[in-house]
Structures are given as structure tokens and as C-alpha cells.
Amino acid sequence: MMTAARKNYEDRMQRVLDHIDAHLGDDLDLEVLSSVAAFSKFHFHRQFAATFGLSVHRYVQLARMKRASHQLASEKGRSVTEIAMDAGYDAPDAFARAFRGRFGQSPSSFRKSPDWTPWLAAFGPLNNARSRLMPVHYEIDDVTIRDVPPTPVAILEHRGDRAGLPATIETFIAWRKTVGLSPATSPTFNIFRSERTPADPGDYSMDLCVGTELPIDPDDAVMRAGVIPGGRCAVLRIEHDTHNLEPAALFLYGSWLPASGEEVRDFPIYCRRHLSLSPDGGAQDVVVELFLPLK
Q1: Are 168 and 175 contacting, i.e. CB atoms less than 8 angstroms apart?
Q2: Cα R_g (the chain), whole angstroms
Q3: CB 249 within 8 A of CB 218
Q4: How confident is the model at residue 241 (pLDDT cuts 50, 70, 90)?
Q5: Cα separation of 71 and 111, whole Å?
Q6: Taking Cα atoms as reference points, which of 241, 51, 247, 48 lies closest to residue 128?
Q7: Cα–Cα dist 262/265, whole Å
Q8: What's the pLDDT tens digit per position in 96-122?
Q9: Which of 68, 107, 158, 195 is the most exposed place for a label (fewest CB within 10 A)?
Q10: Could you tell me the strand order of the sheet in which 188-192 lies?
Q11: Which residues contact 34 (CB under 8 A, 6 or more apart)?
């Protein structure tokens, strides 16, 4: 059980996040934010980093860039220069360099045709920081059993150390763009064929998949054709910290499965990543459904 002192500490930290969200266009230096939490400015930067896993400056920078990307996509009447200034940049070219470095697109290109997959990946640290004060506790009733139809997919296999996963993801994204399979219209799946952190990092194994009935050339240098088999599955919906599904998977195996009387089927646990768009055209944080195949 959380102690009163711990609860008070986390409430003060939460006030800082809420203040940042509400005042992204204002001065958000260390002195301002430490006073919001009623902590000493001489210690607050380390307190913040220890609590959220990234610095105050980095958090504010990401939050402003996230707002700027939404403005680019939805506020067509505002100039890139105005949006850059709102994001804290003195010049639009500095904003453009930072934007391209983070999302792989110029602000103008993003405004015309946003690529939401690298957008979601870029804000993983921001989402993870917020989730640290909002741990998710799953309940048995959160799990549903569903009959899932077979799903034809194009598969890119990642085999080896997780350190190489970002490069595999970039290859996957590039292939999708080439064939026109947008995450907004063609579902994304990950099949987890190993532990998240195997004893030998080289044993890590995951398949990146996109749902499609397009024929895949047997000589395709990147993808191969496959099918996620149909059948009964236990399904758990995840809306927070979707970059680390291990806690949800361990809940399914450690709590739900023993209590359910069910038996697992001979196919790995996998997930589907849902990317929904808000009415203004902005990407929402991805929602994940985790599937545990059952007999």
C-alpha cells in the first residue's frame, strides 16, 4: 500500500506534468517547475529525472514537439514559422532540423502526409514518463476470450539482439511505404517468439507483420508471406506504456491463465497495434490488444 508520504510526493510531481501540459507556450524553466512542485530548484532536476526517467528539459521539449506536430496536421491556417515559435524555437530552420531528425519528415511534408508510425515511436519516452506515476493493474475481468479468424500477413523477421530492433523497424516502415500499406488502414501485428530479455541477447526473436492479402513475391528481399492462424484467444487491451508489453503478458501467464482453466495453443503470444486518428487528423496514442492463443 502506498504511504501517505509517497502519495504526497507523487501528487506534487503530477502537478508539474499537469502544469507543463497547460502552459506549453509559457516559460517552463527549472525555477518555475520546481516552485509548482514546492521543491528546491537545486535538487528538482534530479528528482524529476529519477521519477520520470528523463530530464525536465527533455520532457518539455518532447511535449512541445508533440503539440507542434498536432498543430501541423490539424491547423492548416497556421504557418510553420508560427508553430515553430510556439514550440520554443527561435527560427523555423532550427525547428525543421529538429523535426526531421525526430520524425524523418520535414514539417511541410508531415503537414501534407503525416507518417504516424515514427511519430508514435518518438514519443515513447514521453508516454513512459507519464505512466510511471500511473501504474496499470490488470484484473481477471479485463480479459476476454475471442474467436479470431486467420489473418494473412506480410512478415519481417527480427532475429538477434534487441539493440538491432530499431533498424528492423525502419526497414519495415520503408517497405510499407513502398507498397502503400498505411498503419491507419492495414493492421500491424508483432509476434513474440522469445522472451523480451533472453539470457543470450542473440536469442531474441520477433516478427513484425502487416495484415494484407497482397501477394508477396517469393524473391522479396525484405518480407515473406504468412498467416496468423485463427482460433480462440485470450485478449487483453492495453492503453498505457504500449512500448513494453511484458507486464501485461506476465499478468496473462501468471494470474489469468492459472485461474481460467484454459490451455495455451502452440502459437506464440502476439499483439495487434491499433492506430486511431482524432477528428482533427492527429494520431492518438496507440492502443494494443495482446492475444494469448488458446486450445
Answers
A1: no
A2: 21
A3: no
A4: low
A5: 9
A6: 241
A7: 10
A8: 999 999 888 999 998 888 877 677 778
A9: 195
A10: 143-148, 231-238, 287-293, 270-274, 188-192, 205-211, 151-159, 224-228
A11: 40, 41, 44
* Buried residues in 216-250 as b, exposed as e (16+ CB within 10 A): beeeeeebebbebeebbbbbbebebbbeebeebbe
Longest dimension (CA), the chain: 62
Alpha-carbon distance of 15 to 67, in angstroms, equals 19
Stated pTM of the model: 0.66
**Calpha distance 118→141 (Å, rounded):** 33
- 51 contacts 13 by C-beta, under 8 angstroms: yes
Compute CA distances 118 → 30, 139, 167, 254, whole Å.
29, 31, 12, 33
Q: List % helix, strand, coil for the chain (3-state, nearest 5).
A: 45, 20, 35
Q: By C-alpha distance, which of 117, 84, 113 is closest to 103?
A: 117
What are the two backbone dihedrals, phi and then psi, of residue 263, each rounded to the nearest 5 degrees? Answer: -120, 140
The Cα–Cα gap between 188 and 209 comes to: 6
Residue 63 is placed in which grid cell? 511535449
DSSP-derived 3-state class of residue 151? strand
Apex CA 184: angle with CA 180 and CA 187, to 5°?
Answer: 85
Q: Tell me, rounded to whole angstroms, the distance of Cα 29 from its chain centroid.
A: 27
Q: How many residues does the chain have?
A: 295
Q: Of the ranges 125-139, 167-181, 227-241, 261-275, which one carries the lowest mean pLDDT score? A: 125-139
Grid cell 508510425 in the structure block, residue:
117
- The C-alpha cell that represents 241 in the structure block: 506504456
What are the DSSP calls for 196-246, one per residue?
Answer: SS-SSGGG-EEEEEEE--S---TT-SS-EEEEEPPEEEEEEEE-S-TT--H
